[in-house]
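Extended Data, panel c. Modelled sequence:
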Amino acid sequence: MSPVGKRCTELKTMGLIVNPAAGKDIRRLVAHGSVFGNREKINYTIRILLGLDSVVSDPVMVYFMPDPYELVDTVIDEIRHSLKHLSFEKAAMTVFGDEMDTVHYTEMAVRRGGISSLVVLGGDGTNRIVARNSGLIPLFPVSAGTNNVFADNIEPTILGMAVGFFIQGVISSREVLERRKVLRIYRDGQEKDIALIDAVLLEKKEIGARAVWDASLVRLVVVAQTDALKTGLSSIVERIVRVSSDDSRGAFVRPGKEGKRISAPIAPGLIQELFVSDWGFISPQGSIDIEPTEGVIALDGERELTIRHQERWRVMLDSQGPVKANIARIMDLSRCS
């Protein structure tokens, strides 16, 4: 039986990813994004674990991803004596401080089995890497990046409490776990990658700096969802049409030299004007072809895939994406009556 259908009382191990690179990209230089430093990530993790420990009564193992800065090790050293119910296991892996650490850890967590929940401290880019390999492990993402549409902007203490209520079986997993939409990107019929929020075609032949901040390069934006209160390339669609996480559809826009004129918050403090010449919706399991061109596809705000004229690319909306926990629902259902 999948984790979506299991009773929470069977699950007593929490996975933990703290991405040391999240919140530090070039948008701190070209826009006005805040640097999410290592000390703040340590503080966030402390609050998550204290929240978790406060509501559980049975032992919980925290299986965590190591990193070159030993962020979680520092957390353990600082609060070990304050924790009553938590023990820790560091994944046995070599780390290099890049996205492959997250890939390898997630794959190890799935193979290990018994992971009830996976807390991810990072932005949409980090969660995209996790979601490619997490299967049906429920994700508890807390925002610590630049684009945070998928990741929840929530007080870490509350997120930790929600994980604790979930693990302890205070509420049924069926009531609080949601399958999220995902964009699957295909080249010549083979899946190459996914995006949780947006896939964007850029008129640029080199990947260069991965983060995107220049809307004039955008030729196509495909989204699984938008959020009027968040920045990022998905805001280009949001200024035309709203597609919530609960909406079964996706949407797309094609910027051009004329059409509807919009102002979109591409990054923190960076608002750019552009024209949208065409837009529409994408039905569940529907797709949109990318016209033969040379350029780059950015996924969740970061340049990832180089495309060539002779290749056939398309973006498909899949309703069966990663499993995400609804934190607000967990906290609501766990109230004492």
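The chain has nine helices and 18 strands. This feature is highlighted in the accompanying rendering.
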